[in-house]
Amino acid sequence: MTNIKFIFDYFRYPVIPVKFHYKDKETPIIDALLDSGGDFIVIPMPIASYLGLKLKKAGSVDTAGGTTSLFKATLSMIIGKKKDTATYHNIQIHVSDRNDIPVLLGRHPIFEDYEITFKKQNNQLILKSIAP
Q1: Distance separating alpha carbons of residues 86 and 24, to the nearest angstrom
Q2: Residue 120 DSSP code
Q3: Which tens digit of pLDDT belongs to each residue from 67-116?
Q4: Tens digit of pLDDT for each residue in 44-74?
Q5: CATH number for the domain whose boundaries are 5-129
């Protein structure tokens, strides 16, 4: 990964603009919630259905909103907007059977690849790539 620095504005919650790709389908830009308490990326079932993802049962988990069934899938994800982007090819994500959750970006891979700074006074979330 090259030396990248993203600065995202936010007001209530730390969100990162993302797009998902699978085969010939692509989502519009989605504001994904940066979730330091989560282990992985989770998307709601309607996004998985739109993309036509092949799902594999992964089990059930207890969340703050109750128990949910999870499925695994592989896709590509782009973070950022316009020319300032970073792409993750063929990453494993989890799909929740619930429709009422936002896209969640857990620690893998974002927290492994970026130093993350919250500047609440400036309403900014800063991601700076970690040198390999």
Answers
A1: 19
A2: G
A3: 889 999 999 999 998 888 999 999 999 999 988 889 999 999 999 999 99
A4: 999 999 999 999 999 888 776 678 899 999 9
A5: 2.40.70.10
Q: So what's the pLDDT on residue 117?
A: 95
Classify the C-alpha dihedral 78-54-104-132 as positive or negative: negative
Structure tokens at 92: 């494993």
Bridge partner list, 33:
15, 104
For the chain, the structural domain boundaries read 5-129
How many other CB atoms are found less than 10 A from the CB of residue 28?
7
Distance CA 112, CA 108 (A): 6
Phi, psi values for residue 15, rounded to 5°: -120, 150
Distance CA 80, CA 16 (A): 7
- Amino acid in the structure at residue 14: P
Residue 62 neighbours by CB under 8 Å, 6+ apart: none
> What are 46's two structure tokens?
């309607």
